[in-house]
Amino acid sequence: MTKLRIVLGDGDKHHRLQMRNMLQRGGHQVLEDGEDSQGVMRAVRRLHPDLVIVDVGLAGLGGLEVAELVSEERLAPVILISSGWEQVMARRIKNAGVAAFLIKPITEGELLMAVDLAQDRFSEVQELEKEISELKDTIEARKVIEKAKGLLMKTRKISEADAFARLRQMSMNQRVSMRVVAESLILSFEQGRAI
């Protein structure tokens, strides 16, 4: 199990202490605990924790709003805690992007399992977002290369294969990516210079 750095928010001092002790026995470090939403958000932004655990009834904005902010800004996974379950909150909880939802009283086993699951899910989502970003970059690079290839074909009156070979050769000669070469060619063309 990975030791996580955690920010904890709960208006009940006794419950905060209880959770802090459970988390520490589980090998985690509680960086800071707070009793209101402003304090928790300041701690999250300042300390960059691996996980945030907040109670729905947190003073100030409220735990649900803190969960929404932290999730929206992709600062850390969030475990939301409540003293009860209200059906009207179900949709907001789902939309808040929380990694886990626990109802008090919480056992040590439940808390530590939720911590592990929250971190695993957050890591999976981050990996997927990274893959999506890389795929978008690849698609954009292909579009630029295709445009440059088309310009070469049109201005040099060469085949698609020859245009691609020329781009590839320029890329190797300049020791830069084909995208950089393609962008340079397009810019030259747009500025009226020979390509």
Based on secondary structure, the structural category is: alpha/beta
Mean pLDDT: 90
Overall geometry = elongated
Weakly predicted, low-confidence segments: none
The string of secondary-structure elements, in order, is: EHEHEHEHEHHH
Let me know the number of strands. 5
Q: Please indicate the percent range of residues in DSSP E strands (runs of 2 or more).
A: 5-15%
Helix content: 55-70%
Rounded to the nearest angstrom, the distance between the terminal CA atoms is 57 Å
Strand order of the largest sheet: 2-1-3-4-5
* Cα gyration radius (Å): 26 Å
Strand and helix map with partners:
Elements: E1 5-9, H1 13-25, E2 29-34, H2 37-47, E3 51-55, H3 63-72, E4 78-82, H4 87-95, E5 100-103, H5 108-156, H6 160-174, H7 178-190
Parallel strand pairs: 1-2, 1-3, 3-4, 4-5
Helix pairs in contact: 2-3, 5-6, 5-7, 6-7
What does this 3D model show about the protein?
The structure is a single chain. With 195 residues, the protein is an alpha/beta fold. The chain contains seven helices and five strands; from the N terminus they run βαβαβαβαβααα. Strands 2-1-3-4-5 form a five-stranded parallel β-sheet, sandwiched between helices. α1 links the parallel β1 and β2. α2 runs parallel beside α3, α5 crosses α6 and α5 packs across α7.
Short description:
The protein has helices spanning 13-25, 37-47, 63-72, 87-95, 108-156, 160-174, 178-190; strands at 5-9, 29-34, 51-55, 78-82, 100-103. With 195 residues, the chain is of the alpha/beta class.
